[in-house]
Each structure stands twice: as C-alpha cells, then as structure tokens.
C-alpha cells in the first residue's frame, strides 16, 4: 500500500500544454500535490510562494462498507465532519494566502488544483501489483469492508471569493477545461482507480459549504452505481446508444445549444425541473481524449449554457454539473463523455425535494415537461448572450 504523498517540494516542473496553458507542479506543507494552471494570457509571474504552514498529518484513508441490499459501497470518511462551512471572505480557504488567512493556496493563481485535505477516497493507493485484487469488489456479503483507495482533488476556477464556472471569462474557462483533461489522464493512471469524475456543486440549496468558485474531481476504486446501470443499458441496447440519443435529440424540439463539436439538450425523460445534457458530437470517452478544437468550442458553449441557466430567474440557480466519463478499463468505445446538469429549482422560490417516491423508491415524477423547459432555456440563453456575451 502506498502511503500519503512524498516529501514536500516547492516546484517539480513547469509544462506548457497545446492550448498554451502552463502547468506548474508544487507541494503543500503536508506533502499534498498542488498544481497551478496559468491562463494562456496570464499576467502572473512564473514563481510561486512556498507553503510555510505547520500542518497536522493527513487523516487516515477511510474504509468502505458494502450495503448488502444493493451491493453499493459506502465510504465512511469521518474526517469530512471537520470541513469549514461558509467562512467569511477574509478566511476563505481557497483564496490565495495572506498574513491573516493561512489558506490552502500559497500564491495568487488563475486555476489551482490540489489534493483535498479530508478526502472521501484516498490518499492511500494500492501497490501496483495489488491493484487488480483491490478492485475486485463484486459479490454480496455481510460486513464486507475495503480501503477507500483513490484520490479527491479540489479545482479552483478563480482566486475570487464568490462566483461559479459561469462567472469566469472565456480564457479562464479554457484553462479549467485543460486542467480537467490533464487531471483525468493523471488520475486514470493511478493504481486502483476505476473511474474519474469532475463535477461542480453550486449553491446552498445543493449543500455547498464554500462560496468560492470551485469544483472537485473524485477518483473511485470502483465503477460507480450510476455507471453500472448505464453499462447494463448499453449491453441491452447496443454500443450506439449515445450516438442514437444524440441523433434523436437533434431531430426534436429539446435542443438548447448546438455547435460544430457539442450539442446541449433537455433529455426526453428529464427527472429534474432543470436538466440539461451536453454531448460531444463525435465519440470521446473522457476529457483526456478530447481534441483542442473540442475544448475550444466547449469553453464558449458551456459558459453560454451556464449563464442561460442563471438567466431563467432573477438570482443565481443552484445546480450540480456532473461530467460523466467512461471507466478507465471498460466500455470506452461506447460510453461517451457527457455533462448532466441538474437543478432542483422549479420556480423563483420553489425547490423540488426528493421525498418518499424519489428518495426511497427511485420512482421519479417530473414537474415540468422537458419541451417546455427547453423552450424557456433557449430564451434564457438568448437573453444571457445579449446581456453578457462570451
């Protein structure tokens, strides 16, 4: 078993990506990896201040327990109880460090990615020779336990205290997308990792504990239950499932944005009051395999989509932006990278709560016809384009 990260080092490397985004690798005081991604048009100097804090040792890797009724694995990560909840701006843990704020990031930045101090998975990883055995989590039994191997990272979209992905500018959006691609490749190569999941939670109604514009990336030691259900659907329908869904939506009334490389639509059987899926027009399994042209267009279309979602009402909309990627080792030719953006907001002052039927039985009831919501979203995107063009 590999332990926590190795001895701290101030700078390991600097690397320029094809988008001219510069990647700079550092270490935090407790050995966690910190990576700066500088915008193509950055005004920041190349040097970064070291992290001189005195930090406690990282918490031990959590333990997963299996629910024998479903087969799901539940990570019991008690250290997450100590997370900071809605701190004032002066104590923002994702802002650049100041004398009065010993935050997680020592220097000013454009985009910063670092290992979560209290992760749900990791920091331990299985030894390379033991990775296959560690990932053998099939079967059902009572009182089954396994280490919560993996890695969890925080992705800071901006040094600003408040905002979300939709509030950053186009160059910065392109930097974040480059960071997602870089981290997807790196995390997928870690021993024991089966799936990599970038996502953004936005808004107190979703349970967000920090106002700072940021997302996360989870690296799981198993294929997630949602993806297992998708695999079952593909195995039953056939490997062309995503291509056929996209063709069907392009011929229908629910498309809200369409580009050369990406299409966004409200799905035929939307569960949530606001639900939008975004697919690449050509098959790619994850961000690491997207082309520069796909990333360039996404930096525009994704901003337009998020700003349109915010333009539906007079104040910002809470959402979960979930970027589903193919597992590391299966169905990579049939599972397509796709965004599923969902929000419980069903009116200016109304939220959809998951009560008995949805939460207990998984039997959903939709509140708004998908065709109606698609029409509203197209109008909101047009409004946002006029008021705040990308």
Q: Largest sheet, order of strands side by side?
A: 1-2-3-6-8-10-9-14-15-13-12-11
- Poorly predicted spans: 1-11
Order of helices and strands: EEEEEEHEEHEEHHEEEHEEEEHH
Task: Supply the CATH superfamily name of the largest domain.
Answer: HIT-like
Per CATH, the architecture of the largest domain is 2-Layer Sandwich
Major beta sheet summary: 12 strands, antiparallel
Distance between the termini: 47 Å
Folded structure, characterized:
This protein folds into two domains: 13-222, HIT-like (HIT family, subunit A, 2-Layer Sandwich), CATH 3.30.428; 227-387, 2-Layer Sandwich (HIT family, subunit A), CATH 3.30.428. It contains seven helices and 17 strands. The protein has helices spanning 131-134, 170-188, 225-237, 241-250, 292-310, 356-361, 370-387, and strands at residues 13-16, 22-27, 33-38, 63-66, 73-76, 111-115, 145-147, 151-156, 195-202, 214-220, 255-258, 262-265, 274-280, 319-324, 338-343, 345-347, 350-351. It has a twelve-stranded antiparallel sheet, sandwiched between helices. Strands 5-4-7 form a three-stranded antiparallel sheet, with no helix packed on it. A two-stranded antiparallel sheet has the order 16-17. A hairpin with an 8-residue loop joins strand 12 and strand 13 (274-280). Helix 2 packs across helix 5 (292-310) and helix 5 (292-310) packs across helix 7. It starts with 12 loop residues before the first strand and ends with a helix.
């Amino acid at each position: 078993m590999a332990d926590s990260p190795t001895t701290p080092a101030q700078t390991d490397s600097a690397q320029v990506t094809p988008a001219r985004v510069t990647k700079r690798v550092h270490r935090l005081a407790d050995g966690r990896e910190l990576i700066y991604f500088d915008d193509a048009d950055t005004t920041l100097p190349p040097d970064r201040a070291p992290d001189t804090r005195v930090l406690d040792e990282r918490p031990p890797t959590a333990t997963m327990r299996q629910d024998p009724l479903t087969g799901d694995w539940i990570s019991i990560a008690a250290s997450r109880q100590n997370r900071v909840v809605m701190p004032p701006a002066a104590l923002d843990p994702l802002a650049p460090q100041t004398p009065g704020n010993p935050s997680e990031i020592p220097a000013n930045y454009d985009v910063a990615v670092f290992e979560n101090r209290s992760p749900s998975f990791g920091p331990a990883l299985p030894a390379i020779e033991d990775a296959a055995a560690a990932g053998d989590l099939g079967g059902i039994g009572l009182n089954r336990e396994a280490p919560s191997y993996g890695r969890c990272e925080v992705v800071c979209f901006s040094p600003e205290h408040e905002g979300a992905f939709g509030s950053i500018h186009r160059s910065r959006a392109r930097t974040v997308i480059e960071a997602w691609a870089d981290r997807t490749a790196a995390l997928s190569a870690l021993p024991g990792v089966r799936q990599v999941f970038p996502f953004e939670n936005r808004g107190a109604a979703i349970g967000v504990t920090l106002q700072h514009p940021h997302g996360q990336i989870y690296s799981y030691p198993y294929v997630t239950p949602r993806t297992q259900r998708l695999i079952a659907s593909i195995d039953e329908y056939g490997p062309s499932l995503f291509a056929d869904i996209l063709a069907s939506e392009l011929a229908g009334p629910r498309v809200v944005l369409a580009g050369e490389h990406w299409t966004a639509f409200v799905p035929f059987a939307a569960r949530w009051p606001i639900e939008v899926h975004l697919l690449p027009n050509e098959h790619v399994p994850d961000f690491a395999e997207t082309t520069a042209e796909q990333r360039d267009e996404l930096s525009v279309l994704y901003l337009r989509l998020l700003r349109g979602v915010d333009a539906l009402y007079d104040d910002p909309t809470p959402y979960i932006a979930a970027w589903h990627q193919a597992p590391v080792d299966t169905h990579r030719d049939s599972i397509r990278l796709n965004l599923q953006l969902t929000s419980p907001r069903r009116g200016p002052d109304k939220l959809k709560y998951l009560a008995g039927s949805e939460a207990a039985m998984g039997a959903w009831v939709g509140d708004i016809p998908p065709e109606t919501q698609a029409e509203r979203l197209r109008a909101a995107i047009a409004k946002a384009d006029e008021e705040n063009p990308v």
